[in-house]
Amino acid sequence: MQKQGERSDSLLYERYAATILAYARSLTSSWQDAEDLTLGVFLTALEHDNLSWLSPKQQLVWLRRVVHNKLIDSYRRPAHPPTIP
User: Fold this and answer.
1) With left for phi above 0 and alpha for psi between -120 and 50, is residue 48 left, alpha or beta?
2) Model confidence over 13-52: pLDDT tens digits?
């Protein structure tokens, strides 16, 4: 039996996954990066309490903001982690 939170999380994914992937793809140079961003966005959504209290438009805005923030975070990380000789 699915809990209410699980159901709303799956509905959130079903409703916005394609849109978020397209948005992430428009911001990145590869499909893999876009897919990684999309996965990260929905993992972040799972970590937050149920987002069903937001309107559908607010949910999409929240998810797009998370894409933006995760992309900025990826630019801040060094491409090659420092190595110790």
Assistant:
1) beta
2) 999 999 999 999 999 989 999 999 999 999 999 988 778 8
51, containing H or E segment: none
The tens digit of pLDDT for each residue in 49-75 reads 778 888 999 999 999 999 999 999 888
Helix, strand, coil share of the chain (percent; to 5): 75, 0, 25
What are the b/e assignments for 32-61, b being 16+ CB within 10 Å? Answer: eebeebbebbbeebeeeeebeeeeeeebbe
- Contacts for 27 with CB less than 8 Å, ≥ 6 apart: 34, 37, 67, 68, 71
Q: Cβ distance 48 to 81 under 8 Å?
A: no
3-state secondary structure of 50: coil
